[in-house]
Amino acid sequence: MQQLDKKPITELIRTDSTAQLVATSILANDKMINIVPGTTKGQPVGDNAVLASTASASLNQLTSTGNDLLTQINKLAIPANEILQKANNGQGTLGRIVNDEALYESLNATINEAKNTIEKINSGKGTAGKLVNDPALYDSLNKTVANLESIAADVKNGRGTAGKFVNDDALYNDARDAIADLRKSAAKINEIADDVKSITVDLKDGKGSAGKLLKDEKLYEDARTAIEKFNSMSTRLDAILADAQAGKGTLGKFVTDETLYNSINQTASNVNQFTSEGTKLLYDFRQNPKKFLRIKLALF
User: Fold this and answer.
1) Which end of the chain is more exposed for a tag (fewer CB within 10 A), N or C?
2) Is residue 114 in a domain?
3) Predicted TM-score of the model (pTM)
4) Parent domain of 191
5) Could you say which DSSP state residue 25 is in?
6) How far apart are CA 232 and CA 229, in angstroms?
């Protein structure tokens, strides 16, 4: 509590101060007014000022509140007693946990197994024990972590392939351009697929030359007739060539008769000789025309 003799009352009691009536004895006969000092936000009070008050707390109110609390505790005690009775009788989940020896044995076995496992780990047995107690494994893991940290640092600083891929803007732009080209290629492939689909539909409907070739039976018959004629002509040509190889007919004699070949060869030789002599005569004429031209004059 503030001591009023140290400061003026006008500095302690302000407009935001509160007053409360408090009983000082059990019988509530003696009472006093408790004034809570104000703050600097309030103004000093003047004469006949009225302060805000709060409800007073008497011993009777505290007793009444204690009685209400005891009543609530009694209400909660009744279901608590019922739960404890059921648990003692082995009813419900809590009763089974309390009274079931098999569950106790199972929990005890689980605890013992956990203890054995912890003892094995502490003694370095098993995978977990080696993981915990083997210094070499710890050093290996430590080196692995250090290597990973080094790789991460290299990637962050742009060193190595992964670092360049992460930090090199040119590589990123090239990859983005390549992806754009792939998208364009995929679009072109889709267009080609659409064209092929359209062509297939036209073929199915008999449109165009190929469609007519597939659907027009007359064109098919004409093509088959032409192929048959070609095959017949090939057969006849094979027969003619066979006769020629056997020396039959004019073509056969021309191919196999050496006399006819020699005669043709001699004729070609004579033609070449005549041509040579004619060329020579023409050359001599050009060199000396007077030798071949004679003019005879006669007077009448």
Assistant:
1) C
2) no
3) 0.23
4) 169-208
5) S
6) 5
